[in-house]
Amino acid sequence: MLFMLIVKASQNSESGNLPSDELIEAMTKYNEELVNAGVRIAAKGLHPSSNGIRLSFLKPGEKPMVTEGPFTETKELIAGFILIDVESREEAIEWAMRMPDPQGYGEGQIELRQVFEMQE
Fold this sequence. Notes:
120 residues, two-stranded antiparallel ribbon, 25% helix, alpha+beta
């Protein structure tokens, strides 16, 4: 079962503040544990939304409206993700619970979502 651990953006991540050395070390250790357990598929951080572009599909069949970042509502933004392949929802929750505060400032929030898998 594929799950995505979605790291929500914060004021710090949107400001481009880099994590502390301690947080980088903790996240490196966490990612190594995922790799060693054979469950990590991918893990990436994202640039702040000031480097982003949003496409809004307002009317069916018409071209989307293009908006350049930054986007002001940080609670709706994503700062990064980890994609894992586990045996159960419970195992995904266990891995999510082990992640260090991804923001390091007491602002961290992770959303755990199952990924649809296409049948072949």
